[in-house]
Amino acid sequence: MLSDEPNAGMRRRDLLKLIGMTAGSAAMYQAMTSMGLAATSDYTGPIKLEGDPKGASVLILGAGLAGMAAALELRQAGYKVKILEFNNRAGGRNWTLRGGDTYTELGGATQKCEFDEGLYLNPGPWRIPFHHHGLLDYCKRFGVQLEPFQQFNHNAYLHSTKAFGGKPQRVREIKTDFQGHTSELLAKVTQKGHLEGMVTEEDQEILLEALRSWGALDKDYGYKASLHSSEFRGYKKDPGGGIGAEPVPSDIIGLSDILSSRLWGSLANFALYEFQTTMFQPVGGMDRIGQAFAKEVGDLITFNAKVTKIDQNENGVTVTYEDAENPGAMNEESADWCVCTIPLTILSQIDIQVGGPMQAAIAAVPYVSAVKVGLQMKRRFWEEDEKIFGGISYTDQPISQISYPSTDYNSKGKGVLLGCYTWNGPNSYEFTAMSPEERVRNAVEQGALIHPQYKDEFENGIAVAWHRSPFTLGCSGDWTEEARKEHYNNLCQIDGRIVLAGEHASYIPAWQEGAILSSLDAITRLHQRVLQG
Amino acid sequence: MLSDEPNAGMRRRDLLKLIGMTAGSAAMYQAMTSMGLAATSDYTGPIKLEGDPKGASVLILGAGLAGMAAALELRQAGYKVKILEFNNRAGGRNWTLRGGDTYTELGGATQKCEFDEGLYLNPGPWRIPFHHHGLLDYCKRFGVQLEPFQQFNHNAYLHSTKAFGGKPQRVREIKTDFQGHTSELLAKVTQKGHLEGMVTEEDQEILLEALRSWGALDKDYGYKASLHSSEFRGYKKDPGGGIGAEPVPSDIIGLSDILSSRLWGSLANFALYEFQTTMFQPVGGMDRIGQAFAKEVGDLITFNAKVTKIDQNENGVTVTYEDAENPGAMNEESADWCVCTIPLTILSQIDIQVGGPMQAAIAAVPYVSAVKVGLQMKRRFWEEDEKIFGGISYTDQPISQISYPSTDYNSKGKGVLLGCYTWNGPNSYEFTAMSPEERVRNAVEQGALIHPQYKDEFENGIAVAWHRSPFTLGCSGDWTEEARKEHYNNLCQIDGRIVLAGEHASYIPAWQEGAILSSLDAITRLHQRVLQG
Fold it and tell me: Quick check: B247 and A172 CB within 8 A?
């Protein structure tokens, strides 16, 4: 498993290896960075594990969501269940940092979170799509209170250091103008007859009407600065009340300026199924979900249990682990079956007795190197000065994005911004290579190009680079299409008495739903195997 | 003012007159219905009324938001302030109905709201755009807790009884497919050279890239059923976890079917500035705002005061009013100045001593006839069965829309749907002409074409037709461009010692922000007049 003090050289080699593995897939990287991972859920309701397991025991490795969901359901089905967890808390990547928390990353840097009471950062998962039915169902059963997570805010910014003199543009302006200009172009060529043979004449008439509506065009199908286009992109002077209250239309940005700015590249994000309305977050922090699971199965967990060996024979599974708080103190735990949710980054370093195909699969999946930085600000200037309530601004700088808190809107207090969320690739490697303090300083400097208020309002920050996380060595499984074809099914098979689960064993990598669905599928198959004797 | 029992014939004549006044403006009606009223705010911060009013007194008519904001600010500036209010509560159209409330409309029908504890309907305003800065600022000062109001839900429905066999379509499917098909068409004509002379060759190259991104096109700029288009419109089978978890792409709807369905007509709604993210609602009901104002100025209000005459001379204003609870008991109140926020529908029936231009303006503005129906359902089937969390489905039926509650998401309890919100025109007149019970029955019958669960889950309902509201005789001022040119400035002038305020005296009619900004502008000008002596 993990060496306690990995040397920097090894870490760097690992990073370079990862870069090598994604080289040549720039398009995919681009897609992953800007889109997150496109995936959803096919959950149809709580599983029912019917049939008597006759006292069979299951040892679960990992007390993240996959492990705890397995424990909950297997115990309910009649199994004897135990969980070993490396960390000193339950939840895994379902994790929230609050004032007073400390975090030591690989390399030894320890950060103490200095956020004020009530403020937090979710270093791992932070949002829940409406179609992640499995996770939402557990939230419902546990009574975890949800609030909307704002992904798309029309009033947030799109920013490029290379366009508009570095001045951030409002999403609503870029989106409306792109939609307007392209609608005007299509209307013009329609009127000129260039759609003949592609669209019937009758449909062309309706198309023109539709483009006028969709693109905020005028009666002659022109996209112009006007009160009408301002009804979509916003005004130069908003309408008001009383005398002198007439609105003044805003100017529009020319198509050529929009195209060359490349800010249109962020617009597709907002339309992705996985980012569509209504998304959620638990009130108070993502770890409310992990805590709710732990309330159910916490009694089954042995913490600080650093697994070093997973052995099996035809009678059962034996797992060797070290007490992470007493290095050298080795223990063993045995059971009839094992559900292993250990991340592949770590599992690939553990002596596990499974067949060649699963061994190969375990070794085949690199992990993305996401970095998040939380920045506490003295006041919610993005709301007070800029009227941005929640949502995300995108930038071409390494921080990639700034996300505004989706809670406590319009309140007078402080707030924590997600000041950097870089997902993978060179930017994330660069941030990973920095000390936590450097990451925070860089996030503040880059963010200040979008919000000059940073300079005055920044108070403190905390930075999590997932490749330096001792308990996952990365953020989530980074499958290529080729790796999936060759290894995915081998990874998910039951090998003797061992089955793997976790987001890495799903088509929804990086999402909690992937962990949940993978786990439910694994234990359903395991249960069938057990019943077959 | 109001006759206590208006005869139905008179009411009908009024309605027909209103229909007459909007005849010939079908386009505008369409725009108003589908878009609401396009308007925002130019508030720049709390007003400061500096200078000593030397004990001057102001009588305010109406304890809605306009009246209470005026009272709050004028008292703070040193004025002696009183408020007369016809209703027996503060807030005006800022109003929330809960279980146990009763409401008697013109015609005499009394409804008792039977909602369960915690459920409510906002018959009047129900959402707050992020740019309604004046209103949001009062919310902040008062500590009114806000939560996001979900306007746009990709997973809600677009429904036409005349398209797709009457089967509702998900917004995300219609939107993605419309965007995809039109992007494909524009890409094709670009490739064929038809944009020559309109777009430079260099820009055409970027345009093609942008269309591929925006429209979810494939590498050949085609919009096809694929995993890629499914990443935006949703899948036939969502990706899952473990074995057999591969996603299956969804089919796409042909352009011709989308065009002829006319469902694209609702898409523009979602992009309007006034409906853009992030919108808000007060936690617990819109009347939390009115209550917060009343906490500040409630001591100034005389309730049940039915104004019958507004007189002025060079020394001051005298208002005659009847005690609505003791008909025939007349009273008088005098002051140096008067801020009148009485809706024009009612003010036009009161003997008010102002000049001809203001008299004409008061008579010139018809009011829209919005109707809302709240339906309590035994369970939140739209969430449980259909995964619709908040947002709005649109239909071509008279109910126009169904809005799902933007609160208590994913909870196990009951919920209240907004089962009908028709804004103006024939549908609203028809609903207004029905008894409350008929309105509810019709809303249930029409809604059941979209959600068959209505039949089993409906428990009780309540219906508010604003043209039958005794305290406003309509929903809000319905300005035409022509009426604005001729009358708006005359309406807003200070006439002797009287100034009018309210949403009707703003460019943001129907929105609370219009009332606030109109009021702040009116009292600012009034204060200047007072200081001038």
Answer: no
